[in-house]
Amino acid sequence: MKCFSRYLPYLFRPPSTILSSSCHTEADIISTVEFNHTGELLATGDKGGRVVIFQREQESKNQPHRRGEYNVYSTFQSHEPEFDYLKSLEIEEKINKIRWLPQQNAAYFLLSTNDKTVKLWKVSERGRRPEGYNLKDDDGRIRDPSTITMLRVPVLQPMDLMVEATPRRVFSNAHTYHINSISVNSDYETYMSADDLRINLWNLEITNRSFNIVDIKPANMEELTEVITAAEFHPNQCNTFVYSSSKGTIRLCDMRAAALCDKHSKFFEEPEDPSNRSFFSEIISSISDVKFSHSGRYMMTRDYLTVKVWDLNMESRPLETYQVHDYLRSKLCSLYENDCIFDKFECVWNGSDSVIMTGSYNNFFRMFDRNTKRDVTLEASRENSKPRAILKPRKVCVGGKRRKDEISVDSLDFSKKILHSAWHPSENIIAVAATNNLYIFQDKVN
Amino acid sequence: MEFKVEAHRIMSISLGKIYNSRVQRGGIKLHKNLLVSLVLRSARQVYLSDYYQGVCLNAQTMDTAQPWPPGETMDSELDENDSREHELPHEVGSDVRTSTPERPGSPVPALLNDAVAAPQPVAPPQLPSRRCSNAAAREGEANATRECGALGGVESDSDTPSNPPAASFCRKRRSCEKMTTPPPESPLKKIKQQQQPTATTNTTTTTTTTTAAQELPPPVGDGEEEMDTSNVSSLISIFGSSFSGLLGKESPASEPGAEDSEPDPPSGQICCEQVLKNIAPWSTAIVAF
């Protein structure tokens, strides 16, 4: 199990508010974190509709210890609050998901979505500008034609690097319900957006049309029993995708089979353990996230108390089940009262699919090594870690005597939750979002 | 029996959540509301099963109870206030003096609480609290929701403390509510400020549901319940009474008639059944979607 050290805490807010991190505004709460395909860029979205992109510094010989720091690269307002006049509903600007497109030229492209609208953003650098116009001078003022005595050809001169983000496509008016997932297809031409009851397939170039590929809305809404909670395309097979439901099931669909993929190709469900039945069994079995492994052979699902790894070839039960915070099982009623039971935790694979990571409460996050079957609980907090210090594993004491470093279940802070995290595609660098703060941890090497 | 307390509490919390979801920014979240309604259904099932167990036990033990007056309707409350004696089933060992949310209109004569069948000492102290509701209703007291909770041991005056008859408590409540049509809004407002006044305007129209609502006086001064059960009245009144989707196989009989706000149900007992079985804040919210 590798040890993670805190390389540098990247706080989402400017330094003036570091001192009072507990008094953040609602808009600063990070709602999604995503590395791009090379790991060079890290994008975060927040509840205020903003996207902040970090870029990894190039390694330099002068400062070897600052290898691969992430600095703010670009900030832009992706979504604004809107109002649906027909239903008299406000549409939140919170960014639900960000997904990067693979890089095909010098610019970077990402999809960001709120509850109703998906936008394709182009993030490009501008490092040069033309200078030497004839009719206007470098400040932009119009030159008096009578003062012009000779022609000159404008040349591109270097300037301060400017990163600009422009919305290239806006995919709107396709979802009646709240969008919970977007996923870019491996064909790099299409992507899908999933809301509670429907999944639509889009072409990245076409904004005025989308195809509905899954529709689980019952004819009579009173017969509704489950909703779609997450969806993802297979990393290699462009015809395959999965979607998870609030009933704890996952359906794998093949788009070659039919235009409308209501009929699944594979159905993954683990039979419920009757001894664990309670009022809240259905809530805690609702899947909050589903992620394919990089290899495409496995997928991982997260429900309230566990993470499960499934083999795509075995539908009857998961391959592995990891308990994230089983000590909460006896506290489900209080968690229901304070709404914590509805928290949607995400889960991530590492680059080699050997370690999985997911978040918990009290700013804890957990990593499970699938090979060694060892797990560790770490904490994302400024108080506990200094720069380049190794994160100390934490332990939650379930009952009986509490040891010195342990924390008891009742002392857990349920307002500090880690719902979103990301793992660098190839290196052991993780980004963990703790409310309004972003922590980037790096594996201690050399 | 503690399941019943828990079930009741969870039901009221769930209804509160569904209500609050309406005023949340971003609109109603389908997923969360679906989960909450599933919990609500589970709690209701437990509650009902506990209740029916108690009823069966009581039916065997009590034979002095008056039979269920046939043909009673929701409208026949005013005259029946004085003559009827009501007993509310309540939880054993619970210090929550709120009456249980709804009583199904079962033909079983004695709707005794489970406590009567079990530990006897528990029963008598509870009776007066129920009586107080009668008293209040008779006086045309608006705060039907308040007195039961606050006046735990208040004695009623003229009600004979005989064994509770079959007459439904909910019918009693209906009468309260009928007599004091505008005031139901005030206790609700008083008790829970978040409730929007407009939400309670439906109380007069959805008598079925309001009845059930009125049956849940909040335990004033009782810190046990976090969510005021007076929520239930406004919630049920807001959302209507039909709830067939998640009930599905359970109560097909009551579904067809269980549309929004039936002012004149065929009989009091069916009305009670509907009230109990048709908590459906969910369906209207979905349909509105």
TrEMBL record, chain A:
One of its GO terms (molecular function) is protein phosphatase regulator activity. InterPro entries: PP2A_PR55, PP2A_PR55_CS, WD40/YVTN_repeat-like_dom_sf, WD40_repeat_dom_sf, WD40_rpt. Keywords: Repeat, WD repeat. It holds the Pfam family WD40. The keyword Repeat applies. It comes from the Eukaryota. PP2A consists of a common heterodimeric core enzyme, composed of a 36 kDa catalytic subunit (subunit C) and a 65 kDa constant regulatory subunit (PR65 or subunit A), that associates with a variety of regulatory subunits. Belongs to the phosphatase 2A regulatory subunit B family. PANTHER family: PROTEIN PHOSPHATASE PP2A REGULATORY SUBUNIT B. This is Serine/threonine-protein phosphatase 2A 55 kDa regulatory subunit B. It comes from Erpetoichthys calabaricus. The lineage of its organism: Eukaryota, Metazoa, Chordata, Craniata, Vertebrata. The gene is PPP2R2B.
